[in-house]
């Protein structure tokens, strides 16, 4: 009745489609066409009543799913801060998927436990973190921030003889939560999930790049959890980590560094200065699925206080036998968990120190390249390009927004929008190993064509009496 594993035709079929996809991904529309999105209606159907044909399932997925996917792996996707996929990492994932390992306990998967242990050490070395730092392999930075702050919560309360796991918040001694006004939304989410209450955040002012202004920090103490940022999601800017970590460690405050994409700067000889001094922090969050270009579902929490992390996240049950060996679930919130470390291990094993350095440094160079090319075409770059993020604006917000719509519809590349200091911007995140110099120049040409089109639209609209030619009146402003 069930299709058996030995019948490999289904995998050959999937492989053929996957390879065809990879062959076309550099030239297809980066964002799916309206027709491809309309075709997604083919998935709107009733739950089948009985077992069907496995080949048909794969066929449907490819026929209607592949064209409606966003071509992230093609080299000209600059949306959000997403990243591409290293082929070796993807291939390792394929093999690992056939193993279907559960990485909760060593006894469930000795190979996953071993790779976690080895990768943990490699990460410490690459990022220049102290020997006592441990790593938990989680789904992404949202979860790793949650874990880091849970460890912080456990430790700060424990130091005041308060077991937060047992006693909860009622009657608990006060704890302070301090972060910059530019903290990522997932930091705020973790603060609420952990019960601190977002009303209790002490917000710190930032400079024009979104960096915390050190002199704006209040007195820190041993009741403080301070959350810093290595890589602002818009500007790419880094908080002054050295100065602040130094102050915080003297005051015995707990520092968490959210470095979802920026922590990797530590592994680039050219950019490591951005993360200097961060080793004094207590916990860190970083994604492999962004800057390092592993497939999705790969975040890491790093913590210098193993006992706090384990106590904050530990679950227990009579059937769980902890071993002398590494039991990954102790360092993560989940119990059952796929062995996502496989593709992270493969990326690091393949790249080595020099390869990671080159990958990170190249992203930065491509970001500098697009900033320079766009400036030459009279676009305005609003941020200092210290890492991989570039904030682009036209002469006015309306033109910026219309240009962005044309860019997105062009299929040539894709970049999203943001608001930076009250201005509409197009946010370009160079995040994939696959982005070449030529991809950047082609993207510049797409930006120029899109702006020309937007100016043309405005002229037509102006002739029709809808708005003035400079477009400033579109939003009634
Ligand atoms: C992407 C990002 C996050 C969230 O990470 P996920 O992996 O998407 O959960 C948090 N902080 C920053 C700065 C980010 O760029």
TrEMBL record:
GO annotation terms (biological process): carboxylic acid metabolic process
InterPro entries, sorted: Aromatic_deC (IPR010977), PyrdxlP-dep_de-COase (IPR002129), PyrdxlP-dep_Trfase (IPR015424), PyrdxlP-dep_Trfase_major (IPR015421), PyrdxlP-dep_Trfase_small (IPR015422)
Domain of life according to the entry: Bacteria
Keyword Cytoplasm: no
One annotated GO molecular function: pyridoxal phosphate binding
Signal peptide: none
N6-(pyridoxal phosphate)lysine: residues bearing it: 290
Keywords: Decarboxylase, Lyase, Pyridoxal phosphate
Cofactor(s) for this UniProt protein: pyridoxal 5'-phosphate
Family designation: Belongs to the group II decarboxylase family.
Protein name: Glutamate or tyrosine decarboxylase
Organism: Microbulbifer donghaiensis
